[in-house]
Structures are given as C-alpha cells and as structure tokens.
Input
Amino acid sequence: MGNNKIVSLDELASVLKQHRAERRRIVHCHGVFDLLHVGHLRHFEQARNLGDLLVVTLTPDRFVNKGVGRPAFGETLRAEFIAALSCVDYVAINRWPTAVETIRLLRPNVFAKGSEFRGLSDTLGHVSKEEEAIRALGGEMAFTEDLTFSSSALINQYLSQFPDQVRQYLDDFARRYSAEEVLRPLRAAAELRALVIGETIIDEYAYCEAIGKSGKEPVLATRFVETQRYGGGVLACANHLAAFCGAVDMLTFLGEGGDEEEFARGVCRENVTPIFLYKPDSPTIVKKRYVEKYLGQKLFEIYSMNDAPLAGETEDELCRTLHEILPRYDVVVVADYGHGLLGPRAIDLLCREAPMLCVNTQSNAGNHGFNMISRYSRADYVCLTEREFALETRNQRLSPQAMLRHVADRLDCSRLMMTRGKYGSLSYTAPRQFDAVPAFATQVVDRVGAGDAVLSTTSLCVALDAPAEIVGFIGNVTGAEAVTIMGNQRSIERIPLFRHIECLMKTHDSRGAATLRLAS
Output
C-alpha cells in the first residue's frame, strides 16, 4: 500500500488541487531523509497533526551533495521507507535542489521543518527562501518540537566509509571548529579580486574498448567509442575560483591565431574574464588521453604543444600586461605547468608586484625536474605535492616536515601545503607550526586536475588568513570531490562543497547523543 502513495510531482500537484477544493489543510515536509530514524518519525507525526494530510518530498540523489557515498540509500528506497509510514499520505521525489519551486507547485497550507531551523538559519540559506515561498502563497511556516537526530551524524558514526583514525580526527575537528567557522573564508572569498595565471590546456579523452591483441604485432587493439574535451590547466583553476569569487580574471596564452579561443571561452564560467595572449608558431596545448571506457583505465597520452618559452614581442606583451594589472587584485594564483608561459622576466614581475602570490609549479611528463618552485624568489603561499617538494630539495629521504622547512626558508614563505595523496596533507606555518589533515577520498575516478582544485580553494582561504588546519581541511575535502571527476569534466561547486563539509562535521557529543539537527 505504501507504493500507492508514491507519485510524481505533477501527479501530486493535481491530487492536491482536488484536496484544496474540498478545503483540506495540506502540510508539506521536505528533506533528504537518508537513513530514516525516530527523529524523522516524530517530525512527520507532529507535522501530520497540523493539518488534514501530509505530503513529503525528497531531495533527489543528484542534489544530495553530502560527499562520496551519499545518499546511503537511493531516492527510490527513501521514498519507499517514508511511504510505509501511516502518518504520510503522499510521497514524491523532487526535481530541484531545494523546496522553493516545489512549494510553489504544490501550494501547501503549511510547510513544516524541525525545531533546529526555527531561526530560519541554515548554512546555505535555503530555509529562509522556503519560508518566503510559503508566505508568498498565504501559507505558514511551522516547526515541530521533539527528539531530533542527524542522519549524517548517525551514518558517520555507524556506517562510515572512513577508517577509525579518520573518524577520530573528524570528531576532534568538529569539537574544535563549527561548520560556520570552516566555511567563513569561502563565504568571504566572494569579495576578493582574483587573478589566475597559467597555461591553457585542453584535456581530450578518447574513449575506446579493448578488443584484443593485434593479429600481427604485440599491440593492444581497441575500438573507438567517443571523444570528450574538457577545459584543463588554467581554465579549470579559473572555474574553481569563480565558484567562490564574484569575478575572476584569467591571464593565459593560446596557440597562434587563437585556434581554440571559442572552446576556451565556452568552457569558462560567466564570471571569468579571460585575457588571452597568442603564442607564435604554436598550437594551443592539447593533452590527449586514450582511455579504456569500461574500467576508466588510461592507456597512453599524446601532448600537442610547443613548450619553448615566450620570447620577443609576445614576452614583452605578457610583462606589460602583468605590470599594468597586478595592482588591481587581492590575490594572484599562479598555476605554472612549465609549458613556456612564465619565464624569468614574468616570474620576477610576479614576485615583485603581486600583492598576494599563491603558486604551484607542477612537475609533469613534459618538464620533470625542470619546473621547480625555486624559480620564484618569493611566494606568500605554496601548494605542491610531496614529490614536487622532494624534487626541490634534491633529497627524497628528508621527512615531509624538513622538506617544507627547506622550501619555506628558500622562498621566505610563511604558508605552505604539501599534498600527500592517501596520506592527506601537511601544512606549515612559519616559524614552526605543522598541521596534518587526513585524506577524505573514498572513491578515485581520475586524479587529473585534483591539484588545481586544491590550489584554488586553499589559495582563497590563505588570502583571507584562515587557520592552517581549516585550510588543510577545506583542501582535502576539495581533493576528495575532485578525484571523483573525470578529467575536469566539471569544476568544484560552492553548494556541494559546503554541504560535503557540513556532513563531515556532523558528529556525536560527549554523551554519545546525536547532534541536534535533522537532515535537511
């Protein structure tokens, strides 16, 4: 009988129209309701007592945004759970990330939330918008009062994908910081004037299916399936930054004649303003990867590029542009891929004139051992992998702490972060503070672009002088999201990252009772 209660949103709107004609008072609850618990049951029962029938709408899986592995139960199962409750009359799966449009469609008399939302304050501001929507219809907002639990806290406690040491870290971290404290620098980033500099790279993924060994040669034979192109390099960094900043300027070069300018402009967010230079006798950089589609396994790569340094009039134009625009910004993020954009003259200008300089010098197959952070005489923040730090020190046997100190002293840099893959990250704040944060990734699809995402979000936090541990925490959550994305197919989004951080921080208090918050 419960399944008979599950209808589409449009069907529900039609059914409720008849109930309104019969002057029945309609109560509406909305949420994720992942891992149904007694707090939800009490909430629904009290909401049902506020009217003649209760309708419940669910956030669809694609908008849950609580990190990898969430929701623990898919939208169909969640709908079945709730439909089985006798106090619920109808259940529908939403089409939007919030209930605002749903309220306008269903036109309930009452929209009910848990008591923890009484102040209309949630991290993302959704509840206040939902309150505006119900008031605009002449309805009312109501708050239930009873036991409240958090689905996320219960899942973190009993169904966590993390090992014990990571769970313990999250418990300790949540006791020392509130979610609002952690999110504060990302919120404040909206006011920053940001410039990002680096090479444009187009990531081209040629998907194929392995069909066997070639009949005449010891070569793997594959069948072509499709090709996808994504904006990589500085394009990806600009999009990551633009999710949090009001506006981002991007300085980069393209191949002669702007051969890929239409594509580059097309993949940028609306609030990214590109400043293109054009490199003579060169193509726009394309890194083509051949990928076995079923397993997502990369077979080999082909780089199309001319990585000779800029020279002559092109280098002069870059330096003139830098000299002119650098004073405009609060933070300058340099994603130096070592493919010829930034030579000694441009780097010297950046080190002398950038007000807040955040740098990554990437070590990759095209520049291994040559694109070192020591090319820069100064930086305010450096974010590198452990391998890149080791290459800089020329000693892979040094401890991570010693590597960080070495680079900090060489650049007179007070803030550094070392990303360490499955071991998380280690931050250094001069003169002697180290902060280690574990990794939060539980699923890895593609590591390409993860470092760019981490550089982008952490640079904003450092520019706003956020505590090093919060910077490391945000960086590792960003990295956990980035490695689930194939080849910069999409960028880090503000709301999903906020929700992911909130969910990780939902924990248990010292008495073992769940944090007093219903899953919204």
Residues 508-520 have pLDDT under 50 and may be disordered. Residues 23 and 52 are 9 Å apart (CA to CA).
